């Protein structure tokens, strides 16, 4: 029916398990959370609805239940370099990327969607973003990105891929459309941009040129103190 | 009033009063009992044994189940036939209601059988005193697998569990340390899982050791030194490659020519293994350099040769 993969098998056990894994072991500093309630809020965002009509605000309750402080100076935004980000962030100990927050940790690498007029999850197929933008997974990450940006403070790091085809600073993109507009200028002291090429990859972009220049200009116009460096050691 | 009716009424009143008193007493007794029973249920049963280490991880069932499904669904779909519910049950049955100082390998046999899976050759990565670094490495390079990257290790990593003969059979308050008793649920588990992990290894195997530890990089008392090297199969394993890592800017307590490494090499040679030792294996060192980019050991050549 749809072109994308279906819902991940055993989604409920995975979501609840990840929730407890996070609060008991990965980051117990976030305190006590009701993981069953969190699963219900997550599910109710998209169950029994048209899978092409799920909006970011449908996840509001889920976000409210999973929200926790993001320590200042630890936010790490990125585009097109997830593996590098994971090594660099060191499981939330050096930096806390979106995937290291409770709400990001729960959804990472999973897929899901529901169906209109049915309380079940669709395991057969789910709409891709090309088929319809307002699908369950896309709206989840939009909401998560918005929230992550809103709660970031202090010194912000942005990790871009200098070898990415289509530009290091993709537009449209999550960072461009959902994170930058939701940063709170008063809370942010500095933005460091790092442009890192893939090893043995082409050096397609650097600071001061093309899409990275667009990003630098945009942030400076918004009034941020911006520094850009090529190829982080 | 006639005296007879008066005394009858007096008797009635007495009976009534006595009845009320009994009722009240019964009510008070019921309330006291109820509060004692519910209070007792929220507290640790006074008969539960007390130990020195942290207790069973809260929400153990949800965490184990979630990790199991996460592993077979999101990370290793080739293991799709594993039954996570059965795996959880077999783990629970291994220790629930048992004295946590009396655990045997037989207790874990069903779990080991349900959760074990083949390991591709040339990918086994053993480690000792390098827990942090080795797992950062396997997270970024999926060509190697530590025990904690297999289903069994992944489920149990950084979690604790132990039972107790009294209800509810699981002790969330405390669990025995190794120094209190060796046959505790955690130690027996990891010994068995390590033995099986070593037995399953084939081709070239790797081991990451710590050259900045004062007591020596290789210790016979470690799980690697006491269990894993003795369960490698010389018919399956062609070579052992030692990566001896020193902390960047840290003490250089030992390198490949050091005493404990020579001892390890002789033990392995006696068992007919081929061994190579490499000081500061570069791919892993680069990962260490993420934390210390300005150190001389971390400088990259800027001029191409």
TrEMBL record, chain A:
<comment type="similarity">
    <text>Belongs to the ADP-ribosyl cyclase family.</text>
</comment>
<keyword id="KW-0520">NAD</keyword>
<dbReference type="GO" id="GO:0016849">
    <property type="term" value="F:phosphorus-oxygen lyase activity"/>
</dbReference>
<protein>
    <recommendedName>
        <fullName>ADP-ribosyl cyclase/cyclic ADP-ribose hydrolase</fullName>
        <ecNumber>3.2.2.6</ecNumber>
    </recommendedName>
</protein>
<dbReference type="GO" id="GO:0030890">
    <property type="term" value="P:positive regulation of B cell proliferation"/>
</dbReference>
<dbReference type="GO" id="GO:0016740">
    <property type="term" value="F:transferase activity"/>
</dbReference>
<dbReference type="GO" id="GO:0005886">
    <property type="term" value="C:plasma membrane"/>
</dbReference>
<dbReference type="InterPro" id="IPR003193">
    <property type="entry name" value="ADP-ribosyl_cyclase"/>
</dbReference>
<keyword id="KW-0808">Transferase</keyword>
<dbReference type="Pfam" id="PF02267">
    <property type="entry name" value="Rib_hydrolayse"/>
</dbReference>
<dbReference type="GO" id="GO:0061809">
    <property type="term" value="F:NAD+ nucleosidase activity, cyclic ADP-ribose generating"/>
</dbReference>
<keyword id="KW-0378">Hydrolase</keyword>
<keyword id="KW-1015">Disulfide bond</keyword>
TrEMBL record, chain B:
<keyword id="KW-0325">Glycoprotein</keyword>
<keyword id="KW-0521">NADP</keyword>
<comment type="subunit">
    <text>Homodimer.</text>
</comment>
<dbReference type="GO" id="GO:0016849">
    <property type="term" value="F:phosphorus-oxygen lyase activity"/>
</dbReference>
<keyword id="KW-1015">Disulfide bond</keyword>
<keyword id="KW-0808">Transferase</keyword>
<dbReference type="InterPro" id="IPR003193">
    <property type="entry name" value="ADP-ribosyl_cyclase"/>
</dbReference>
<keyword id="KW-0812">Transmembrane</keyword>
<dbReference type="GO" id="GO:0061809">
    <property type="term" value="F:NAD+ nucleosidase activity, cyclic ADP-ribose generating"/>
</dbReference>
<keyword id="KW-1133">Transmembrane helix</keyword>
<protein>
    <recommendedName>
        <fullName>ADP-ribosyl cyclase/cyclic ADP-ribose hydrolase 1</fullName>
        <ecNumber>2.4.99.20</ecNumber>
        <ecNumber>3.2.2.6</ecNumber>
    </recommendedName>
</protein>
<dbReference type="GO" id="GO:0030890">
    <property type="term" value="P:positive regulation of B cell proliferation"/>
</dbReference>
<dbReference type="GO" id="GO:0016740">
    <property type="term" value="F:transferase activity"/>
</dbReference>
<keyword id="KW-0472">Membrane</keyword>
<comment type="similarity">
    <text>Belongs to the ADP-ribosyl cyclase family.</text>
</comment>
<dbReference type="GO" id="GO:0005886">
    <property type="term" value="C:plasma membrane"/>
</dbReference>
<keyword id="KW-0520">NAD</keyword>
<dbReference type="Pfam" id="PF02267">
    <property type="entry name" value="Rib_hydrolayse"/>
</dbReference>
<keyword id="KW-0378">Hydrolase</keyword>
<keyword id="KW-0735">Signal-anchor</keyword>
């Amino acid at each position: 029916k749809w072109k994308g993969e279906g819902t991940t098998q055993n989604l409920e056990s995975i979501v609840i398990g990840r929730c407890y894994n996070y609060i008991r072991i990965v980051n117990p500093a976030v305190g006590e959370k009701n993981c069953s309630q969190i699963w219900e809020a997550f599910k109710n965002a998209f169950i029994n609805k048209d899978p092409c009509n799920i909006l970011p605000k449908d996840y509001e309750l889920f976000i409210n239940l999973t929200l926790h402080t993001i320590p200042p100076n630890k936010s790490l935004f990125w585009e097109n370099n997830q593996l590098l980000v994971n090594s660099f962030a060191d499981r939330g100990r050096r930096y806390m990327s979106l995937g290291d927050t409770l709400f990001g940790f729960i959804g990472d690498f999973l897929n899901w969607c529901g169906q209109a007029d049915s309380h079940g999850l669709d395991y057969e197929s789910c709409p891709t973003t090309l088929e319809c933008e307002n699908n369950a997974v896309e709206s989840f990450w939009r909401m998560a990105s918005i929230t992550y940006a809103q709660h970031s403070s202090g010194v912000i790091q942005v990790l871009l891929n200098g070898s990415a085809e289509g530009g290091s600073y993709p537009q449209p993109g999550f960072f461009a459309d959902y994170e930058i507009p939701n940063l709170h200028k008063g809370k942010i002291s500095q933005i460091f941009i790092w442009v890192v090429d893939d090893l043995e990859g082409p050096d397609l972009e650097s600071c001061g040129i093309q899409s990275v220049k667009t990003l630098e200009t945009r942030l400076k116009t918004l009034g941020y103190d911006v520094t850009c460096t090529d190829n982080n050691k | 009033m006639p005296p007879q009716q008066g005394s009858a009424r007096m008797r009635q009143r007495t009976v009534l009063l006595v009845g009320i008193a009994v009722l009240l007493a019964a009510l008070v007794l019921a309330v006291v009992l109820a509060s004692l029973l519910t209070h007792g249920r929220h507290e640790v049963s006074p008969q539960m044994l007390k130990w020195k280490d942290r207790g069973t991880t809260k929400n153990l069932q949800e965490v184990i189940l979630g990790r199991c499904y996460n592993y077979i669904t999101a990370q290793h779909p080739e293991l799709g036939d594993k039954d996570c519910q059965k795996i959880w049950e077999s783990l629970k049955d291994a220790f629930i209601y048992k004295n946590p100082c009396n655990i045997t390998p037989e207790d874990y046999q069903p779990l080991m059988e349900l959760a074990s899976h083949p390991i591709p050759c040339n990918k086994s990565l053993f480690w000792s005193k390098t827990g942090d670094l080795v797992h950062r490495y396997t997270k970024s390079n999926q060509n190697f697998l530590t025990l904690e990257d297999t289903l069994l290790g992944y489920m149990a990593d950084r979690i604790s569990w132990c039972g107790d003969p009294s209800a509810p059979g699981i002790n969330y308050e405390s669990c025995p340390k190794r120094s209190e008793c060796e046959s505790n649920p955690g130690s027996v588990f990891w010994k068995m899982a390590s033995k099986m992990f070593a037995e399953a290894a084939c081709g070239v195997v790797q081991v990451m050791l710590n050259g900045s530890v004062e007591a020596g990089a290789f210790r016979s008392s470690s799980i690697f030194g006491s269990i894993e090297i003795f369960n490698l199969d010389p018919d399956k394993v062609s070579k052992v490659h030692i990566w001896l890592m020193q902390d960047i800017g840290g003490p250089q307590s030992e390198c490949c020519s050091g005493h404990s490494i020579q001892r390890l090499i002789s033990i392995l040679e006696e068992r007919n293994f081929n061994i190579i030792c490499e000081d500061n294996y570069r791919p892993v060192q680069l990962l260490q350099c993420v934390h210390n980019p300005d150190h001389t050991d971390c400088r990259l050549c800027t001029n191409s040769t």
